[in-house]
Amino acid sequence: MQIYNRHQIAEVVKLDCAALEAVEAGFAALGRAEVEMPPILSMNIAESNGEVDVKTAHIHGWPRFAIKISPGFFDNPSLGLPSLNGLMLLFSAKTGLVDAVLFDEGYLTDIRTALAGAIAAKHLSRTNSQRVAVIGAGVQAELQVAALRLVRDIREVHVYSRDPSKAQAYATRMQDQYALNVKVHDNAASACAQADIVVTTTPAREPVLNWSDLPKGVHVTAMGSDNPHKNELHPTILASADVLVVDRISQSRALGELHHAPALQREVLELGSLISNQQSVRNSDQQITVCDLTGTGVQDTAIANYAARLLEDA
């Protein structure tokens, strides 16, 4: 058994096209029903504004499966600590023995979450998309845009955060690190007005985005709602979008955006099925597409297998 720390993992696993292909392969396997994936084990620790999720999946034919333990304690920044942490345990799919402990402190979760957003945009946004609006100004607000650049020619970023100082710091960081043109807005509607892609990256408990905020032709990726008490999109968005996609229907109904629209009666597609069937659902530049990403165990097993291969070769 090998134990790898965050530094070792980050040295070999990057936010790049190879990692994207690994996560996309996991989604495709899910779409082909080649995955065993139980519901998420989730526990809230209300007195500390915290939560802990345990996710796992086995992809048929893959050498290893991962079990991920992921705590999120959202008051940690005030203590000088990161909000997210965790590790992945990697087991042999043949013997059940532990192959490796990936003590990544949440790094692989950050990477696979950002890549899932890029994969959603790859299959749902207009191919000529260049302008992205980001709601939120944390780690994922940065990584989602960085990952989008793998699949779209992103040139312009519009950001809105409830904390103007965080939004300004985000703008400076994105300009310095990625040479992007970034504009800070004082409300979500203004940020979205000219966007080709909108990404919501918040732990919000009430909608941060309304249907009236969305311009024609935009693609929306909502990635913050991964617990029943979280909600980023007004239910009208789910009802009115031309195309509605989720990573896992049962999971979104239990703890994602579908959880907040129980009476919704419409077609809901799964991202893995679109990928495995090579199905194109955008047939007009005027369509509004929406993808709700709650974060699946198959993403964790995919990125953990990919990381293990690179670490073994390092």
TrEMBL record:
One of its GO terms (cellular component) is cytoplasm. Signal peptide: none annotated. Coiled coil: none annotated. Pfam families: OCD_Mu_crystall. InterPro entries: NAD(P)-bd_dom_sf, ODC_Mu_crystall, ODC_N. NCBIfam families: PRK08291.1 (NF006141). PANTHER family: KETIMINE REDUCTASE MU-CRYSTALLIN (PTHR13812). This is Ornithine cyclodeaminase.
